[in-house]
Every structure is written in C-alpha cells, then in structure tokens.
Amino acid sequence: MNSFHRSRALWAALLAVVLAMVVAACGDTKDDTETNASGGGAAATTSGGEAANPDGEYRSGLTAIVMPKQLGNPYEELEDSGTVEAFEELGGKATIEGPTDAGASSQVPLLQSAIQKQPDAIILAANDPNAVAPVLKQAMARDIRVVTQDSDAASDARQVFINQATTEGIGEVLARMAKQVVPGGRGEIAVLSATANATNQNAWIRVLRERLQTPEYADLRLVKVAYGDDDDQKSFQETQGLLSAYPNLRAIVAPTTVGIAAAARYLSSSPKKGRVAVTGLGTPNQMRKFVKDGTSPVFALWNPKDVGYLGGYAAAALASGIITGAEGETFRAGRLGERTIEANGEIVLGPPTEFTRENIDDFDF
Amino acid sequence: MSTADVAIDRTAQGERARRLTEMVFRMRELGIVMALLLLIAVTAILEPRFIEFDSLKDLARNASIIAIIAAGQTMVILTRNIDLSVGSVLGLTAFFCGDLLSNHNTPIVVAIVLCVLMGAACGVVNGVLTTFGRVPALVVTLGTMYVFRGIAFVYTDGRQINAETLPDSFLNIGTGTVAGIPTIFLIAFVVVLIVGLYLANYRSGRELYAIGSNDAAAKLAGIRVDRRVVAAFVACGALAGLGGALYAARFGTVDATAGTGYELTVISAAVVGGVAITGGVGSVYGAAIGAVLLGCITSSLIVLRIDSFWQQAAVGALLIAAIAFDRLVGLRLDAALRQRSARRA
Predict the structure, then answer these.
(1) Is the per-residue pLDDT at B162 higher than 80?
(2) Distance CA A167, CA A8 (A)
(3) Is A147 in a helix, a strand, or coil?
(4) Where along chain A do its domains lie?
(5) A121-124 and A160-163 beta bridge pairing
(6) Taking Cα atoms as reference points, which of A264, A274, A307 lies closest to residue A85?
(7) Superfamily classification of domain A167-301
(8) What residues does the Periplasmic binding protein domain cover (chain A) (predicted)?
C-alpha cells in the first residue's frame, strides 16, 4: 500500500516538474512574441535624428548594464570587468547582470527588467542574434544605447558591435600556427572544436580549410574535425580518439578555450607528447603550464578584457553623443587609443595576440 | 512421508529458490559484462589500436569518476530514492579542492578529506529534507541541484582553477599510474569494492535493499528507515565529493560549471548496470561496469570515426534495452516463484 502511494507521489512529482517546464517554456515564447509585436517599429525611431559630435566630452555619471552570455564563465567575467573598468575611468557605473545558462532566450527576461531601470546603455554578449533582437529594439526606442560585444545580435537591434577579431583574421592565425607547430610544416592535423553547431568555431574552421587549400599550406592535411562540446570529459575522449585513430597526426588545432586546455592536458601526460603539438585559442593562465612544458608551443587569443573595455568606451561615446554608430565615426577609447567604426556598425579590436614561452608571463588572464 | 523427508524437501526447495534468485542477479551483471566485451571485441576487430595498453588505461580513467559517484547513487536508488544533485556537488567540491590547493596551500590529503566532508554535508541536506520533510527525493534533489550549483557560482565568482597552480603530485592522481595501473582507477576500484562488500555483507547494507523493496514492511520489521535513507544520501554526497576532488586532479581546469549534466550520466550508468530505478534491486559492481560501458561507447564511436551525434542515441537505446531486459527478467522471476508456491500449496 505504502509503496503504491510512494510511487504515486513520485509520479505526481515528475508530472509537476514536467508541467512546470512546459509552463516556463510557454511563458518564454509568449514573452518573445509580445516583445516582437511591440518592438517592430522601434528601430526606425532610434537610428535617425541626432548627429555625432566627435569633439564632444564623455559625460560623467553614466550608468550601464553589462550582460554576459552566462555568469560564472571566466572568459565572460574578464570581458565584463573590462567594461566596468571603462565606465569607472569615465566616472560612471556599470553593473553586471546575466543569466546562469547560455540558452537562446535566457537573456530576454533579464533585458526586460534592465530596461525598467532605464540605464544610459546596455552592453551585452548575445546568446542568440534573433532571440534578443525585439527586446533590444525596445531598449533603443527608450533611448538606451545598445552595444554588443564578442557575440553579435541582429545588426538592426544594436548600434555598435565590438568584434574581437575578424573571422578571416582568426582563421588565418589558426592556419599559420598549425604550420608553425608541425615540423617542416608537413603532416596531418585535426581540429578539436566546441559543439558541432557553434557559429564562431564553424566560421573559423571554414576559413582555416580555405587557407589549407592554398599552396602555402599544401603540405598540411586536415584529417578530422572533432567536437568536444566544450566539456572536459568529452574533449579528453575526443583527443584520445584522435590520437589513436590517426597515428600520423602531428597537431591538434582547438579554436575553443575548453578544448585546447583539455587537449593540452591530455597530451602533456601522454606518450605522444612531443610528437603531436596542440595549438588554437586559449587563455594564458590555463595554458601557461603547457606552453612551458612544450605541449603547446604557441596559441593565440585576443585579450577579453580589452574587448569589454572597448565596448564600455563605445557605449559611453554613444551615450555622450560623440558617436551615433554610423560608419567612419571615430572616438577615443582610453588606453586603446582612437577607434573607427567600420561598415555595419562594427569595431574590430585587432589581430589576436600570440602567446609563446617567451611572452606568456607578461599576461595574467 | 516422514517429517525428516519433508524437512529435506523444504531445504532442497529453499536451495533451489536461492539458486534461482542468485542466478537472476548474476544474469543482470553478466548481461552487461557480455555487452561490454562485445563492444570492445567489435571495436578492436575494426580498430586494433583500441585495445592497446595505453588506450585501455584511458578507458579505465574515463570511467573512474562516474563509477565512484555511481556507487553512491546506487545506495540511494536501492532505497527507492534518487539524487539529482551529484553533478552540482561535484562542481562545488572540484572547485573547493582546486581553491584549497592553489590558494591556501592545504596538504593534498586534507583537501581531499575536506571535499568528502563537504559532499557529505550536501548529502545530509538531501537526506534530511527527503526523510523528515516527507518530500519526494526527485523534487528535493532537483531543488538542491540548483541550490548547490548556485552556491558554486557565488563561491567561484567567475574564477577558474588552472592546472598550472595545482601541485604536480595532486595532478598525478588523475593522470599517473601505480605499478602500471592508473591511480584514479585503483581508487575507484577500492571504493566500489568497499561499497559492494558493505551492501552485500553488512546488516545496515542489506537493510537498504529491504527499504527499497518494501519500506512499510521494512519499518514493521524494525528497520530505522529514515536513518538508513539519510545515511545513503550522506554516502552518496561524500562519494560525489571524492569525485569532485578527482575531477580537479584529472582535468586540472575547473570553473563553476564543472560536472554539469553528470547526474544523468551517473544514473544512466547505474540503470544500465542493472540497478532498478524502482529500488531494492542491483549492485554497485553492475553500476561500475555500467560506467565503463558508457565510457567505452563514447570512445569506441570516436575511434571508429562515427559521428558523435550517434553517441547519445546509442546510450539512449542501451538504457531502454537495459530497462526492457530488467522487466523481462522480473516477469520471468515472478512467474517462476508463483509457480513454485502454487506447487507447494
């Protein structure tokens, strides 16, 4: 009898959980459509009107809300600390608010409540270009300046996008580093990526493939693109798999910080260390040990703090009327110097920094 | 028929019944061992490097952490409860361990013990809420899964532990070997053996099975059900804490999201290994082999260069097969026992 009740309670609980999830999911879609309906005409009202005043001063006392893709992600936290730093330098205040998961719609409710607070600017790394677009348009309609950094939203839903590096630039660096770590620039290489549908990674890998077609890289052969899903265990297993499935492999190129650390960590204690090199995109702190022990002779990354710092200055310049987000406008971005807005409202941070045994101790992030 | 004959007949019958149930239990583990051997054999034929010594060491290492947590999870599932918070406990303790070793110069053994204690404390919360709060464990641990993860977010504050700041002797636990056998595997082996012996031979261990089979009867038989269930949760939390420390040793990189989704892998390992989700049936050995099997599936698909999208489908199919097999065996056993008691009457 009791066990019957127990199992019925269990089922009821399970049902409740499922119901809650369904309701939550419905709630989300409803929010999306609502904002969609009301946000449609917003973009038109913001983009026109005011003119840029390149000689203007930064206003002090500006407020901003910084939103990462996900809280707790060290890379994102670093980026946001740059934005906060920029606002502090200008006598303003930026506060960090963000979701605990990187789901497509997780930022939407937070953005809605951010608009209620009526800050001067919102700076975010979008989890999904379209899911956040309606609510960002709503923000712009209320005179809040919108800057995206690291990961863009639909281009009519923000004024400026801070691009950490161009897709071409990163693909190029990946190809060059792969050639550099393979002795004689000749041999098999494999890519260890994040998830199979990660937009950034796929774009970089596409450029890498294009470069490998050119005569300069004719001796490098890409044998496999593996996906570690930005999960340590999975990335470990994929690395093991690559090493045993491709005995002639000479390099693993991992354009993701989780993947490169996992590949380097696995290789550093493997008999194949020294024969197979790891390169790609990673942070100096996670890779320092492996650069020094020779597992990864070189890797690259832009400075995430600078991405956020530039985003902070761009947002402040927008809010101070120094720029409007149109192509060709310039503004002074603190220690990063004068910056120009390129086509489509993009500002490119610059080529990624390459880290080797010689310079890695100059960086701490 | 003399009374002696009847007595002999009774014993023979009891003997047969015991042999039958024993066989069934063996069959559960045997089935999964067969599946594992088949998988390894097929993969090895197609790609001989799969069974090279180095590759086997990796397979053992990959399964170790899951096997340890699955041992704890098994104790909880046996009592017809479930612990969804193990992934979050792992994340919390993995960072705690890394923090102690990188920033506070704690001796390695002390750090690991503290992780186990922290995991046990999480288990106390789960156990007390479940038993004394009379709330289903599914809901309690779903809640604490988020709570513990939230605490991990607050505690890590966006920081990351890197291999560079961890002592080499600690990292060696995750990657090194003792007499050629991976250290982490030896730890898992000992843990599983201890839990297995405890469940099989100790009164309080056997009582977990009794509670899961019929908790009302267990209570009437004088078993202190609440106390046992809390103890199972504490053991599960403690082992998740140990798993967290080993996670830090193995991967070297830890942030707030470490171990996300591990709870489902661990439960899958236990279920595939023949631990009935409805409680009262199964063994830690089965769960541990389940962990090895799940790890082997992933690795073999990678080695065979099969698209990783198939991996989840394969694991899902295996889960359903395990449950179907379980049900089939259960029905057979029921029928056999019913027949016997009918004959006896």
Answers:
(1) yes
(2) 55
(3) strand
(4) 1-38, 58-165+304-351, 167-301
(5) unpaired
(6) A307
(7) Response regulator (3.40.50.2300)
(8) 66-321
Asked if the model's pLDDT at residue B69 lies above 50, the reply is: yes
CA nearest to A245 within chain B: B303
Sign of the dihedral defined by the CA atoms of residues B72, B77, B83, B87, in that order = positive
Task: Give contacts of B49 with chain A, Cβ < 8 Å.
Answer: 244-245, 247
Mean pLDDT of chain B: 88
Residues of A in contact with B255 (CB under 8 A): 72-74
Per-residue pLDDT tens over the stretch B294-303: 888 888 888 8
> How far, in Å, CA of A110 to CA of A105, rounded?
10
Say if the Cβ atoms of B302 and A10 lie within 8 Å: no
CATH, domain A58-165+304-351, list 3.40.50.300, 3.40.50.2300, 2.60.120.260, 3.40.50.2000 = 3.40.50.2300
Nearest-10 Cα torsion for B280, B281, B286, B291: -60
Confidence check: pLDDT of A46 > 70: no
Domain ranges of chain B: 15-339
Distance from CA of A74 to the nearest CA of B (A): 5
CB neighbour class for B239 (10 Å; exposed up to 12, middle 13-18, buried from 19) = buried
Q: What is the pLDDT of residues B24-45, one digit of tens each?
A: 656 677 778 888 898 899 889 9
The pLDDT tens digits for A226-240 are: 998 888 888 998 999
Q: Looking at chain A, which residue has its C-alpha nearest residue B150?
A: A100
pTM of the model: 0.75
Nearest to B166 by CA among B238, B117, B240, B94: B94
- Tell me whether domains A58-165+304-351 and A167-301 share a fold: yes
The Cα–Cα gap between A187 and A168 comes to 23
User: Position A121: which residue type?
Assistant: A
Better-scored residue on pLDDT, A102 or B233: B233
Average pLDDT, chain A: 85
ipTM of the prediction greater than 0.95, yes or no: no
| d(CA B273, nearest CA chain A) in Å | 21
Cα–Cα distance measured from residue A295 to residue A281, given in angstroms and rounded to the nearest whole number = 14
Q: What is the CATH number of domain B15-339?
A: 1.10.3470
In order of A18, A29, A112, the CA distances from A22 in angstroms are 6, 11, 21
| Whether the Cβ atoms of residue B273 and residue A89 lie closer than 8 Å to each other | no
Inspect the interface and report whether the beta carbons of B162 and A240 lie closer than 8 Å. Answer: no
Distances (CA, A) of A84 to A87, A90, A158, A170: 5, 10, 19, 26
